[in-house]
Amino acid sequence: MIGHTSIVGSLLREWRGVRRMSQLDLAMAAEVSPRDRNSMLTAAGYAPLYRETSLDDPKMAEMRHALGLLLRQNEPFLAVALDRRWDIVMCNTPYARFLSRVGGGSLEPHRVLPSPRLNLLRLLFGPLRSLVTNWEEVAREVLERAQREAAADRDPARRQVIEECLQSAPEEWRRPRTEASPRLVVTVDLRLGEARARLFSTITTLGTAQDITLQELHIESFHPADEETETLLRGMALRG
């Protein structure tokens, strides 16, 4: 095995020299994730490029503070930080209140949540289903995005979440749609008691992060799609 690793490493060095590519250039050209890049480089006899540090680690104190700030900046509107498996890592106060109203449990906002964590996909295909009035449109869009993200992924837990959701979805959702002109923005239309809210979301990722945990983290922020929704959410925040 050592001999094979040595041969692979020599070949990689030779071809990188011909192509004038660094280790990182080669990994990025192969279009694999930082996690897979580490595995490939380790198998070839190189040191991993990316570390993986738990958000609970003291070294992550500054990043935890920064995530909290990003989430607070979206208040009084909803925002949530998700990991690669769509588990809820951290959320702001309006998001925590929203989940508590739909039976999602009591979450402490602006704190890294302990495991096992709630999973956004499972929530969408579970307790949130009855509250999203355009559920089929939203759920299919989110599921297709999740399938694209996991297309070249070897994480069985990630694939399991998708498969669980597909079990309660129409059969045709297993196949990608072929519409020529998809909608630019799909709103999330919520039923909040007697009120209605229309939201659209934006996704933020951390640029040039050198840690796998941070690279695979993304923040989804929800914004009012009309004045009525803005007034409603601001009023709900004031009432607590």
Could you please describe the fold and organization of this structure?
With 240 residues, the chain is an alpha+beta fold. Helices cover 44% and strands 13% of the residues. The chain has ten helices and five strands, in the order ααααββααααββαβα. A hairpin with a 2-residue loop joins strand 3 and strand 4. The protein is globular, with a radius of gyration of 21 Å. The N and C termini lie far apart (62 Å).
Proportion in β-strands: 5-15%
Low-confidence stretches: 1-6
What coarse outline follows from CA principal-axis ratios? globular
Structural class call reads alpha+beta
Number of helices: 10
Radius of gyration: 21 Å
- The residue fraction in helices comes out at 40-55%
List the helices and strands in order. HHHHEEHHHHEEHEH
Mean pLDDT: 82
Give the N-to-C terminal Cα separation. Answer: 62 Å
In spatial order, strands of the major sheet run 2-1-5-4-3
Specify the biggest β-sheet.
Answer: 5 strands, antiparallel
- Please provide the count of β strands: 5
Offer a quick outline of the entry:
The protein is an alpha+beta fold. It has helices spanning 2-19, 23-29, 34-43, 61-73, 93-101, 120-124, 135-149, 156-167, 212-215, 227-239, and strands spanning 79-82, 88-91, 188-192, 195-205, 218-224.
